[in-house]
Amino acid sequence: MRNLYLGDSGITVRYLQLALSRAGYPLALDGIFGEGTCAALGRFLGRENICEADTAAWERLIPYLKGYEQTEDGGIRLFDVPLVSTEVPYTSVLTCYVAEGLAARYPFLLRGSIGRSVMGREIPYLQIGTGKTEVCYNASFHANESITTPILLKFAEEFAEAYASGGEIYGVSARELYETYRLYLIPMVNPDGVDLVNGYLTTGSYYRQAKRIGQQYFAIPFPAGWKANIEGTDLNLQFPAGWETAKEIKFALGFDSPAPRDYVGTGPLSAPESAAMYRFTQEHDFALILAYHTQGEVIYWKYRDYEPEHSYEIAQYFGEVSGYMVETTPAESGNAGYKDWFIQDYNRPGYTIEAGLGVNPLPMDGFDAIYQANTGILTGGMTQLSGR
After folding, report:
1. CA within 13 Å, CB half, 64
2. What share of the chain is helix, strand, coil (3-state, %, to 5)?
3. What are the mean pLDDT values of the chain's consecutive 10-residue runs (388 residues total)?
4. Residue 168 in contact with residue 372, Cβ under 8 Å?
5. Cβ 25 vs Cβ 74: under 8 Å
6. Which residues are catalytic, by number?
7. Is the pTM above the cut of 0.85?
8. Distance between CA atoms of 228 and 194, rounded to whole angstroms?
9. CA–CA separation, 156 vs 160, rounded Å?
C-alpha cells in the first residue's frame, strides 16, 4: 500500500478507512483523507496529529483487511468482523488479502494461484470441499465488472462459516455440499485491468500504455469503460472456440489492435490470464462452470449448437431462483469466450451470468441486491448437478 497523506483521495484511502473502521474507529468509506480520517488514524496509532499512513502504519492496519494478525508465539488472532466487505470496490491487493484471510480463518478452505497476470499479479483461487464432483466459478474476466469478485468471495465466506458451524447455506446442508463437491472459485481473472478501472493503478509504464490505447477510442470512457487486460486484449475473446469468427466480427467493428474492449489478441490464449484459465481448466474435471459478468440480468447457457445434457434445465432453474432471463448469446458476442470453449471441448453445462443492471462498473451500493439474486445460482451450480 502506498503512503497516504491528508488531502489524498481514492481507493487506497477507502481501504485505510475500512481498516480503521474494523479496528474500532468507524468512518464513512468515502475515499477522502480528511480531518476525520486523520483523527481516527491518530487515535489508532496512539499519537495525535498524525495525518500520514506510512509503511509502519500499514503494517498495523493491513491485518484488519486480512481479518487476522500473527501473534508473538507464532499463532494467529482472528478479528471478529465479517471479512468480505460489500462496501468498497475490489482490487488485486484486497482480493488477495481476503483470500489469505479466509484461508487463515477456515483452514479447510484451500488457497492457491492459477497463474499470474501481465504485470505479475497473482490470480488466486479458493477451493472448498472434498467431494469427487468438481465445479468452477470465476469472476472479473472484464476489468470494469469487478463487482462480481465479492459475489464469489462472500459465497466462499458464507459456505465456510456454514460448514464450520454444521449449518446450512441457503437451505442446503453445507456438510453435504462439502462432502459431495469440490468447488473452485477464481474471483479475479483480470487483476491488472481491475486495478486500472478502480484507481489502484495510476502510474507507471503499464498505466501510460493503457492511457495511450484509451485515447484512440474517445467514445469509450477511460478508465471506466476498460474491459480488457492491461495490454488491451479482451480476455473473454481469447479461447479456441470460434476465435477466427470472433476476430472477423470484432475487426469489422474497428477493434483490430489493442483496445479498451473487444480486441481478440494476436491469437487464442495469447494473454497470460486467459492461458492460465485454460490450463487450470484442463488440469481439472469440472462438471459445470459459471462465468460471472455484468450487466443485464441474463443467463447465457449454450454455444452454437452444443446443448450439453441437462444444461437447459439447469439454466431454467437458475432463471427461476434469480429472476434473470435465460437466453442464447447474441451472434456478435457468441464466440471465443471461456464458457463457449468449455461447452465445446467438454460438452458439459457452462453459463455466463450477467449480474445486475446499469452501466459498468456497477456501484457497490447495489451489491446486496445482486448477491441475493444470485444465491440460488451459487448453490444450484452444485445441487442441480445431482438433480436435487
Report:
1. 18
2. 40, 15, 40
3. 94 98 96 95 87 94 95 88 95 98 97 98 98 98 98 98 97 97 98 98 97 97 98 98 96 97 98 98 98 98 93 97 92 88 97 97 97 98 81
4. no
5. no
6. 354
7. yes
8. 9
9. 6
